[in-house]
Design goal:
Structural class: alpha+beta
Strand content: 5-15%
Strand order of the largest sheet: 1-2
Largest sheet: 2 strands, antiparallel
Distance between the termini: 42 Å
Radius of gyration: 15 Å
Helix content: 25-40%
Number of helices: 1
């Protein structure tokens, strides 16, 4: 079964592993929610760092 993928460079959706622009495609869906998320604190710290770099917080 093939899934829809998204190109991070041009934003197009495709079912190919490599977009027509030459960039590798990624899965656009977020991971499933789990209250026992072992990596949650790392994702939140990464997001906070990214927002600080952009000057949003």
């Amino acid at each position: 079964m093939r899934h829809i993928l998204k190109c991070p460079e041009c934003g197009k959706y495709t079912m190919r592993e490599v977009c027509s622009c030459g960039s590798k495609t990624i899965n656009p869906k977020p991971p499933k929610y789990s209250p026992e998320d072992p990596y949650g604190k790392y994702r939140r710290a990464s997001k906070e760092e990214l927002l600080k770099k952009k000057g949003l917080i």
